[in-house]
Specification:
alpha/beta; 255 residues; TIM Barrel; 8 strands
Length: 255
Amino acid sequence: MSDGTLFREYLNSIGILPGIKVDKGAKDFSCHPGEKVTEGLDGLGDRLSDYYAKGAKFCKWRAVITIGDNIPSDACIESNMNALARYASLCQENNLVPIVEPEVLINGAHSIETCNEVTRRSLKSLFNNLDMLNVYLPGTVLKPSMVISGQENQSRADRNTVASMTLECLQDCVPELTAGIAFLSGGQTDEEAETHLNIINNQTNLPWRVTFSYARAIQAAALASWGGNDENIKKSQEILFDRASKCSMASVGSL
């Protein structure tokens, strides 16, 4: 901060828990053209111990699943979900809450039915691996993508269909013990991301808290308005407040 206070200490002073992304990015998956596998497990235990000592309370690891011709392969899904589970177990061993992010990319012309099938495969593999490695689900947050048509699809599913298929997928694949679900916005427009979340939260008797972990859908418009120019700070903050407020209302179905 401008007064020399460490950012993590300032966050703590206003009731915000700091966390850190710990993966080292999605890299080309050997012998599997068009697919990625996330790296970063080497030395992770020592890094997590250091992050906890410095005040971190949670971590995040992102796996990337691409839909295309004959992909994703079982090898890609299993490799990524096993890495997510290994990361999660290391987090809990170091008193950190793991956010597990199995992102099925929106890129492509695929149908919502294809996305649904791939998302189900990914989530079932993820929770099988979490169970195999004794990860404590009440201390684990899932950050999934929504079940949605590819961006290039010429007849994309409507918003009620996205919300209903997403919710059915989660109810079928995510154990009720899971601490919570915090969606990524994943290439959706701001309005799509907030509307889908709002419709989902209009349902009753959900076994988990369903909320948002949006970056683009909260920050993008504000960053574009700011553009690095101090003259735009006030306007950009107003945009940021508006975006955060709408997402907050959507997280309780009151948008």
